[in-house]
Specification:
The structure holds two protein chains of two kinds. Chain A is mostly helical. In chain A, 73% of the residues lie in helices and 0% in strands. Chain A has one domain. In chain A, helix 4 crosses helix 6, helix 4 runs parallel beside helix 10 and helix 8 packs antiparallel against helix 9. The longest helix of chain A is centred in the C-terminal third of the chain and has 49 residues. Chain B is mostly helical. Helices cover 80% and strands 0% of the residues of chain B. Chain B starts with a helix and ends with a helix. The chains are: A mainly alpha, B mainly alpha. At the A-B interface, helix 7, helix 8, helix 9 and helix 10 of A face helix 5, helix 6 and helix 10 of B.
Chain lengths: 283, 291
Amino acid sequence: MRELTFTQLLQSTPLAGADSIETPIPKVKELSQLSSFEHQLVRAEISVAHSVFIALCITIGFVLFSAGLFIGPLFAIFLGLTICFELLFAFPRERAFRRAQRAARQLPLLLETLGHQVHAGLSFESSLAKSLPQIPRGELAVLMAELMRKIERGGDLYQGLEELCDRCRLPDFRLFTQVVKMFGRGGRLYGDAFVQLAIFLRGYRENLSQLQRRAHVQRVCFLLFTGLLISGAIFYAYMVPDACVPVQSSALGLVRELGACAIIMVVLVTMRITSAFSFEGYD
Amino acid sequence: MTNIKIEAVLVALLCLYLMVSNVRRLSTRQAELGRFQAKKNYLWSFFIQDFRRYIRSRAAVRTLSNVQSSLVDREVRRLEEAGMSYGSMRSRYFFVREMLLFVALLTSIYFFATYTTLVAAFLIPPIVVVAVWGPRCWLYMRWYAWQRRLDVEQLFLLQMLNVGALQGWDTIRILHELADVLADDRTGSPIAVELRRAQWRAQMGGTFEEGLRAIPARVRHEGSVRKTEALADSLRVDPTGGQDRITALSREAYHEFVVDMERRASAVSIVLAAAACVMIVALASFLQITI
């Protein structure tokens, strides 16, 4: 379906007697009107309805609960609940953060192009429209195209930028918005400011990416080590059955279940802590 | 007979728990709202103790200088420092904490009634530790993230001041403009909160510098404190900022940031090594391997 600009939309809408006509325009919720969970899904670009997503997570949790029953009921409950909550809350947050990070990596290029256009005397909106085809396809291009669409439909630029900040909760976007708002208000040319900002952000992101890559490699090594350890121990237990104490009492069974819970807990908590160390404190 | 005993103990413990937790919740609410709101006057003795604690916690929140001995006070303070200064977040936190304690209590009683004392003595402590320290660890993570965000955003603030100075703007003017711009913030940015507080101080007859000097009282991150103090010093020397000084400040902050990142990258390896050790123990208990 062809998209209409704001002026075309106004022309195509019958204004006379508009009060008596029931409006056919579908109601689209603004970001601020969404519940925090829906908002998180939008930020993570998970396009299914939130009820479907919740149902999906619960189903996966239930399947894992059933699988966990082979080890014990306590472990099954723990596994089902943990994975269900991880999928419901941690997964969208992490996905949104990764997406914002990818967009932030492309931001310096956009800023440089914008800076040159603004310096040449174009307005911010026209510069943005001209710069969009010059940035590579990706998250940033999608976000900026959305911003442009909003402006074309008569939306407020500053409000659009605030929404952008809300979607990508990284300091890069906040700084970008601040520069546009501050120097835009003063009516000054802010081309130089964009270029200086681009230089700073490029250095910042490169440094951060290097360190995060190193932390990422360490985390992958840890996961591989865990996998090898678990498979090695199970192999050992099957090869040398005398080495393992057979479960005779319910207490020993419980210790076994708690051990299994602890394995999952250690992996999850370690991943959380290491991501808190290596990320920027956002989400 | 045994069943009746267990049920009686269960009910008695439940009642005791509800009474104590209710009193604790009241004291927390008093500390939050800053006024004596309790309307029910049961458990007077508990209440008077709580009133003393309430006064202590109010003093702690007001001066934000010395850490109080009470754990509730410390948590309220940490909540404040983690950016959860509004009521609903705090109440939710305390509600979840109370519920976890309640579940841990019931589970402990169940284990105590089902298994022998020796087995229960091994099983109950980890559950209690998780219930008591789990929420606190979560709070600590939030607090750490908030402080970290503030540090990063201060780095960006200095960069913004640098950009402004290169455009020929006064530092104080940029700070005021930034505080205005950040008034629309919906993301809960720490620097937005701090700048608005500083601006409020300036509008109430003080100076922006005084507002900036109040930030370190709420901040535990060394780099963040240093940056704030350097900026405040710079404002005292020259309210217009001075381009060279601001540029030097932002460069120094960036260097500090890189060093800090290196340090945290090595902390990741330590955490992973510790986790690997715990993993081995957990696996041994799962497979019940005899060594």
